[in-house]
Amino acid sequence: MRHILSILAAGLLLAACAGPSYPPAPASAASPDYRYVIGPGDSLNIVVWRNPELSATVPVRPDGRVSTGLVEDLDAFGKDPTTLARDIEKALSKFIRDPVVTVVVTSFTGPYSEQIRVIGEAAKPQVLAYRQKMTLLDVMIAVGGITDFADGNRASILRTSERQQYGVRLRDLVKRGDVSANVEMKPGDVLIIPQSWY
Predict the structure, then answer these.
(1) What are the tens digits of pLDDT across the range 183-197?
(2) pLDDT tens readout for residues 102-131
(3) Which of 15, 19, 30, 141 is buried most deeply by CB count within 10 Å?
(4) Does CATH number 3.40.50.1010 belong to domain 115-198?
(5) Domain residue spans of the chain
(6) What is the 3-state secondary structure (H, E, C) of 15-66?
(7) In 3D, which of 126, 144, 51 has the Cα closest to residue 93?
């Protein structure tokens, strides 16, 4: 009886070390109609045609607003550049006849809800701005790979948009060059890289 209990205890210990098992992440995840939206920390080049004195490069403040010549505290957070340009034109129309505005994002951070977060045993855990068709390999290059203590093949992606967690094979991808382990990321994904227990 004691022998059976010790075998069961050893089996439970091994199961606990193995951790939870998640379904594999789908290879394709990007949405073809994705449009970049502005977030705090972005830098915007605002060009007002025929009015260079009103053109400027401005940061998006932490509250998600921008201020530029004749336009103060305009909401930029969550808007695409074209929508923001139309809003600036509307605000400027009180002072200028038929203003034509172009907004170009020159430094990308994006809204918090769309950033990719990498936590755990990455060489440099960090937050990355999402880019269309961004892959797991792109993320691993940006964070410098995994540490020697990482259990890369037990890593997972927490897909916040779906409230689902998927398993990924980082060790196979990074250490063995197995491109079949590469998958597309989605805005808001969290890559979790656990530590190896042995």
Answers:
(1) 999 999 999 999 998
(2) 999 999 999 999 999 999 999 999 999 999
(3) 30
(4) no
(5) 43-107, 115-198
(6) HHHHCCCCCECCCCCCCCCCCCCCCCCCEEEEEECCCHHHCEEEECCCCCEE
(7) 51
Those residues with Cβ within 8 angstroms of residue 120's Cβ, 6 or more apart along the chain or in another chain:
150, 155, 191, 192, 193, 194, 195
**Model-level pTM?**
0.81
**Structure token digits, residue 194:** 């656990």
Q: How far is CA 9 from CA 3, 4, 5, 123, in A?
A: 10, 9, 6, 35
Fold for the domain defined by 43-107: wza like fold (3.30.1950)
Instruction: Assign residue 120 a region (left: φ > 0; alpha: ψ between -120 and 50; beta: otherwise).
Output: left
Q: How far apart are CA 103 and CA 35, in angstroms?
A: 14
Q: What one-letter code names the amino acid at 195?
A: Q
For tokens 């809204």, name the residue.
Answer: 111
Can you read off the two tokens belonging to residue 58?
């401005």
Q: Where are the beta strands (DSSP E) in the chain?
A: 43-48, 56-59, 65-68, 71-75, 101-107, 116-120, 126-128, 156-159, 164-167, 190-193
